[in-house]
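Exercise 7.
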Amino acid sequence: GSGDGSAGPAPEVGAVKTTEVAVLDEPIMLLPRPGDDHLWVAERAGLVRRLTVDDDGSLTPDGDPVLDLTDLTTTESERGLLGMAFSADGAALYVSHTDPDGTSIVAAYDVADGDDGPTVEADTRQVLLTQEQPFPNHNGGHLLVDGDGQLWFGLGDGGSGDDPDNNAQDPDTLLGKLLRVDLSGDEEHEIVALGLRNPWRFAIDPQDQVMWIADVGQNEIEEVNRTPLADLPDANFGWSGYEGDQPYLDGAGRRPDDPVMPVFTYRHDGDPGGCSVTGGVVYRGTDLPGLDGAYLISDYCGGWVQALLADDEGAVTPVDLGLEVPGPISFGTDADGHVYVLSAEGPVLRIAPA
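Solution. The predicted structure, written as tokens, is:
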């Protein structure tokens, strides 16, 4: 199924709608903190806010920002506060951001619970990883914590276009890689997979033990990969020898012998069309049973939302959800599995049954 609908009839997912639940400043990450009934949001300019979930589902910022990184980053080009995750016990907050020079940083903060709610203790900042960036685009930046408490981090290929230094295929740089971050801050970070251009964003489905990665394309083709976690070590997703499922650059060391091919692609000038894939969360909520196990994606220019449903063999069927979102840049979930689409223009939209 490369986006041509050849994977058989579309599953019945039921009608859905979006409801605007907040308007924020370029929200880029939204997630629950374990043991906390609020939601936490990261805004690209560098603020982390805690949000009260009102009875009608709307999200209201709760007091002042809990963390202010605006002096430590910049929103030039594709830079900024790009990722956020919590440790399994909620006692640590992990953030990924570019610094004013553009270097990618992963840092950890202690989160303390007090009578007035949790506090992110700014003076506990511990830098876990730094990676210089040769260009201001393709920073990746997504973070997630898996069921074992491991912190995953995705880095783009360093930017410009066509990966001029072939970073994605170079095993000696973290650029263009999917990593497991060493939380002590002094060991080597584990490169789990390579050959990525700009993974934005990825998700682990704990039920199926698979990793979904939305990887932004170059000029023509956007791609989504789906790989069992057991097959991930040393997986090579092919960039820049391949763009999507098509051969691309063929210079020395660019085209791997055994690339992992995407399970879904679409062309910029095709249907549904667009310019830059936006991943993505796996739906495991209860109010949209037809979407159970689906990986939701959008496109920054296309503004549509599609659900990718995998069968037992891993073949993927895309289902268009009939939604329109302005400038979608990320997805989020709450503790109950409800899914939100985050717009670069500010709206936070919850996907719900129509």
